[in-house]
Amino acid sequence: MTDTRQIEFEESSGNVFEDLGMENSEELMTRAKIGFHVASLIKELKQKDAAKILGIAQPDVSHLMNGHFSRFTTDKLLDFLRRLDQKVTIEISTHKEGEPYQEVALKA
Is the dihedral of CA 4, 16, 71, 50 positive or negative? Predict the structure, then answer.
């Protein structure tokens, strides 16, 4: 016997924060993408060493590693990238309908 029930779902906008109806969803998504990249760069370091490099306390490194990116401003996350010897390029262009106002593009 084959189960033919349909699973209901909604297509994502690509931004989970927007899908959940959260205010400042684009800013939250920007911080999440940058924060995830920072966390991936420090994942092999001891938290004590990461704290020294980033200029923050060890408990804050723990928050960063656990995905609590809302605890950090976008500026602070960008500063972490600088401290990790990463180049950050900001591109400003005219907004087109249907596009998000903020995007983060990561290059390898």
Answer: positive
- What is the C-alpha to C-alpha distance for residues 45 and 92, in angstroms, rounded to an integer? 34
Q: What confidence tier does 106 reach under pLDDT thresholds 50, 70, 90?
A: confident
Q: Would the pTM count as exceeding 0.85?
A: no
Ordered alpha helix ranges (H), 43-108:
47-54, 58-65, 74-83
Q: What is the CATH number of domain 21-83?
A: 1.10.260.40
Tens of pLDDT, residues 17-38: 888 999 999 999 999 999 999 9
- Map out the domains of the chain as residue ranges: 21-83
Q: Residue 39 class from Cβ within 10 Å (0-12 exposed, 13-18 middle, 19+ buried)?
A: middle
* Residue that has been written with the tokens 């760069």 in this structure: 41
- List the alpha helices (DSSP H) in the chain: 16-19, 25-42, 47-54, 58-65, 74-83
